[in-house]
Design brief:
The chain is of the alpha/beta class. It folds into 2 domains: 136 residues, TPP-binding domain (Rossmann fold), CATH 3.40.50.1220; 63 residues, SIR2/SIRT2 'Small Domain' (2-Layer Sandwich). The chain has 10 helices and 11 strands. Helix 5 packs parallel to helix 10. The mean pLDDT is 95. The protein binds ligand BV8 and zinc ion (ZN). Zinc ion binds next to loops.
Length: 244
């Protein structure tokens, strides 16, 4: 398998999706074929869904908090954290995952572009705070203003943090043809993250897709497509282990 040859100029931008956490035991979205307890994920993970039935939405996130507390990072998360150690400020990770596993594996130069499962925020005060609690049959209220507390997650139809998108754009522009862009374990269905590959191509970056079952349409946008499980591929690809 092709490995990544690093030069002192090499810069790496990584976009991860649910597939990177699959080997840790975290279900993917397409794995649930986009459904949860008969609800479309877009319906439950949306401001409209929260307004219509906040308890249903808190049950969805409470179940995911319980699940995410029982799992651990896998070799794919660890390999990415080691690559960050080697590259320093020439590395950036943008993750769509909210499960916190990259941080637990040691990733620091990371943008949680779709939010964080273990943070909540008051709809009015808007300041996120760490929260591992579950709310199956109660609705959390803000201690300061009594407002409704929601998961600190970017829902469908909500804007991503503009600062995150700026940082991704700046990193890609600065990387230019020295940049390698990796999309790992993502179906490339959700924008704006799914559009990062086109921005990377526009500056002459080398683009790689690593996925256990890549979709033809998304894969067609990449220079290199590696079919495999990220927990098995990444340690070899990133030179953490000798060739198999
Ligand atoms: C925005 C938080 C606009 C939730 C998430 C109509 C109405 C409303 C919006 C839209 C619309 N049409 C389009 C949109 C835009 C929408 C969008 O793209 N929708 C899609 C469905 C068409 N995007 C948005 O709404 C975004 N916001 O556009 O705002 C706007 C503009 C101006 C002003 C106001 C608003 C917000 C998107 C963020 C949504 N939140 N997450 C939560 O997590 O609970 S997205 C959520 O789904 C995840 O975070 C993740 O990003 C996404 C699922 O994608 P993946 O991570 O790729 O997971 P998936 O299961 O799909 O794929 C897994 C892959 O792994 C597979 O390829 C599989 O083969 C592979 N795999 C499996 N195992 C392994 C593996 N690979 C390697 N190794 C393995 N072991
Ligand atoms: Zn408040």
């Amino acid at each position: 398998m092709k490995t990544l040859s690093l030069t002192p100029q090499t810069k790496v931008l990584v976009l991860t999706g649910a597939g990177v956490s699959a080997e840790s035991g975290v279900p993917t979205f397409r794995g649930m074929d986009g459904l949860w307890e008969g609800h479309r994920v877009e319906e439950v993970a949306s401001p409209e869904g929260f307004a219509a039935d906040p308890q249903l939405v808190w049950r969805f996130y409470s179940l995911r908090r319980e699940g995410a507390l029982e799992v651990n990072p896998n070799p794919g998360h660890v390999a990415l954290a080691k690559l960050e150690e080697r590259l320093g400020d020439r590395y950036l990770l943008a993750t769509q995952n909210v499960d916190g596993l990259h941080a637990r594996a040691g990733s620091r130069r990371m943008l949680a572009i779709h939010g964080e499962l273990f943070q909540s925020r008051c709809e009015k005060c808007a300041v996120p705070f760490a929260d591992q609690k579950t709310y199956f049959d109660t609705l959390p209220k803000c201690e300061t203003c009594g407002g409704a507390v929601r998961p600190h997650i970017v829902w469908f139809g909500e804007m991503l943090n503009p600062r995150h998108l700026e940082q991704v754009g700046e990193f890609i522009q600065a990387g230019g043809s020295d940049l390698h862009f990796f999309a790992i374990g993502t179906s490339g269905l959700v924008y704006p993250a799914a559009g990062f590959v086109q921005i990377a191509r526009s500056v002459g970056a080398m683009t790689w897709l690593i996925d256990a079952a890549p979709s033809r349409e998304f894969a067609s946008q990449f220079d290199e497509v590696i079919v495999g499980k990220s927990g098995e591929v990444l340690p070899f690809l990133l030179g953490e282990r000798s060739e198999r």
